[in-house]
Amino acid sequence: MRTGVVICVGCAMVVAFASMCVGSYFWIRASVNRRHPSRRWYVHTNPLNAVLFKDELTPQGLEYREKAFRAHKITLISIAIFTVGSIILDLTKAN
Predict the structure, then answer these.
(1) Which of 8, 32, 48, 55 has a C-alpha 20 to 30 A away from that of 68?
(2) Which residues contact 34 (CB under 8 A, 6 or more apart)?
(3) Which one-letter DSSP state was computed for residue 76?
(4) What would you report as the CA-atom Rg of the chain, rounded to the nearest whole angstrom?
């Protein structure tokens, strides 16, 4: 049983890392496709904040924003699976 859990935890770790990288890529792509000039001072200060607001992005940027949020959601789910699997492995270790 422990072997199956170890494989699941390893896969969850790889998926979390990969989806985090993909989410960051789409986040940057979305922030590049923003409307100019910005109406918010914190978007003007840091253009990556444009992804937080729908009205700051172009239609292409909105598509990237949706993909970025989906990838970050997958990251959070993978981290939760990783955590639960690690707890199960800790509880089932041989004495």
Answers:
(1) 8
(2) 43, 47, 50, 56, 57, 58, 61
(3) H
(4) 18
| Closest alpha carbon to 81 in 1, 8, 20, 31 | 8
* Phi, psi (rounded to 5 degrees) for 57: -110, 150
Query: How far is CA 2 from each of CA 11, 87, 88, 95, rounded to the nearest angstrom?
Result: 14, 12, 9, 14
Tokens, residue 53: 């607001």
Q: Is 78 exposed, middle or buried (0-12, 13-18, 19+ CB in 10 A)?
A: buried
73: left (phi over 0), alpha (psi -120 to 50) or beta: alpha
Averages of pLDDT over each 10 residues, the chain, 95 residues: 90 96 97 90 92 94 97 97 92 78
DSSP structure class, residue 33: S
Instruction: Give alpha helix (H) positions in 33-58.
Output: 41-45
